[in-house]
């Protein structure tokens, strides 16, 4: 018996020694709030996640551990830690932790959620180098110009009356995006009815994507769809997919009637993508499913993000009359009051660009970016980051850090005049479109669309809020950051003649 206890004791000492030696030198787990058994901190989450996460970072530091049910979240809230994720270990963090609802949207195989690899690189190349390059965007300028002019005519008809700027900008941007996608394929009343269908479908999809889903916190329960979110998502998704298939079918029919698609004059992105699909020189070919996923990315992602950016920018401008005056003075010098804004004017409007940058600093479109997911255990900020964790990067909090920015809560576009900050994501104090290989693929298009629309709104009209309204810049957290209350403002024409509004 004594021998037995001696052996057991020796084995216990060996195990403890082995565990100690194995853990010796291993980075510690990040600090974080203590949660409840099984559910972790889920019951304590607040709707305004971006500001709640900023509070946690002030308490626990720049790298924080969050137990979200059976999922482990990692919160990053400093430029140095963000650099380690987005640059130093870019490939390790290049994948996504795909939410259950997104798997319904695209199977997680679109450009936003696709795993890093040959298929993702092919889609990225199509988007950034081919479909959204400056050369291709130049070819679709007339499509954007037509919609912007139509919006100006509508706003002119509302002179002196309150206008829901956010609602109008969503409608305009959606029309611009769909115009670029199939503006040369679908015309007349059919295009107008498509716009209405898309507005309804996108509204349903974005609302459902913003609902906290038990299936994400406890993947083992996902097949049960306890909240019915997947079932509700299927209806608008089927509707949008049917529209895409119909548009593609129309384009293919046109090409068949007109002969070779390559011989046709460039009209829209649908034609462009179908031409790429027919090219046989790629090891990872573009399929019809890829085309539908890319169209879905641009419609759902492009319309909501750009329109929200315009609404925030206009709200900040109206709330700062001296900024509006300075921007309009620049527009009058570059464009003139007897002329209309064109896209080629944009690169000459340095103060307007500074306004846009400052608006994105205070109100980044994706305040927590799109969550990253490490493919292997790694270290960030001296802490151990497990494989498969969901990594949130709080760009919103970094953009408002008083140790980086002077008077960070003040809207001051002048801080971006002659500054080193741009949209490339190379400076981890300012990266509104993300950084690294998974940064936003639509930066060039977003910059053109937002600046062109904001320039046109400011050049063509003066803006003020109704006397009974108080301008509220409160934010509402969601998939994308929105104004909590829509911007209601009154347009007053400021150009030299009525013909400029026709």
From TrEMBL:
Coiled coil: none annotated. Its cofactor is heme. Heme binds at residue 440. Gene3D superfamilies: Cytochrome P450 (1.10.630.10). It comes from the Eukaryota. GO terms for molecular function: heme binding; iron ion binding; monooxygenase activity; oxidoreductase activity, acting on paired donors, with incorporation or reduction of molecular oxygen. The keyword Oxidoreductase applies. Keywords: Heme, Iron, Metal-binding, Monooxygenase, Oxidoreductase. Pfam families: p450. SUPFAM superfamilies: Cytochrome P450. Belongs to the cytochrome P450 family. This is Cytochrome P450, family 706, subfamily A, polypeptide 4.
